[in-house]
């Protein structure tokens, strides 16, 4: 999603450390090439891979300086974070396991044990990984080198966390998200530490119910909070 087309969803960052002025381009180019995207080996247990790719072509991994630097009114580093996920769908795994279990049960005249079903699932996942193409996300990055401002074309929290980690490993520089908190601290400095919550934060507003002490979170999609007896494909664990 990105800088060239598609819906615009941008999160801004500030690079909080100066870049050493000697051989700036060389330093940044080496950082990019050291963490260029590497495709997932379907025979490995890895389910996700991420790294840098060309802004103009997500399949172009030959990231020369001419492809990543842009000079206009300011100098920019323009690049894409490519994220590939290889995970067969639950429906496909279940379909194969159910068919194999039914066939074996009929042939041997007995019910299939949990251990046997687990082995069938593992084999189904292994085979499907060899024939299932990975899902690819391309998230564009524009870094204004002179101003130290960086634009990531995604608001998804997981993608932003992945990006910050990749950026830090690539360039050994710290990022700070540009938002209300950073702007307030920049404007007020240490005075911000003396600010106190307004009474409404604890008491609510006149004529309305009090505000909750702890924000209510929607954990419907939080896999870690689902029953520990269910595996990633929705089958009972052995």
Main β-sheet, in a few words? 7 strands, antiparallel
Tell me, rounded to a whole number, the average pLDDT: 83
Amino- and carboxy-terminal Cα gap: 40 Å
Poorly predicted residue ranges: 215-226
Number of strands: 7
List the helices and strands in order.
EHEHEEHHEEHEHH
Write down the domain tally: 2
Instruction: Tell me the β content.
Output: 15-25%
Structural class label = alpha+beta
Overall shape: elongated
- Rg value: 25 Å
Helix content: 25-40%
Tally of helical runs: 7
Describe this structure as you would to a colleague:
- This protein is α+β, with helices and mostly antiparallel strands.
- It folds into two domains: 11-86 and 134-214, no CATH class; 90-123, no CATH class.
- It is built from seven helices and seven strands; from the N terminus they run βαβαββααββαβαα.
- The protein has helices spanning 24-34, 65-68, 90-108, 114-131, 157-171, 180-188, 199-203; strands at 11-15, 48-53, 69-71, 75-85, 135-144, 149-152, 175-177.
- Strands 1, 2, 3, 4, 5, 6 and 7 form a seven-stranded antiparallel β-sheet that branches.
- The longest helix is centred in the middle third of the chain and has 19 residues, at 90-108.
- The protein is elongated, with a radius of gyration of 25 Å.
- Mean pLDDT is 83; it is low at 215-226.
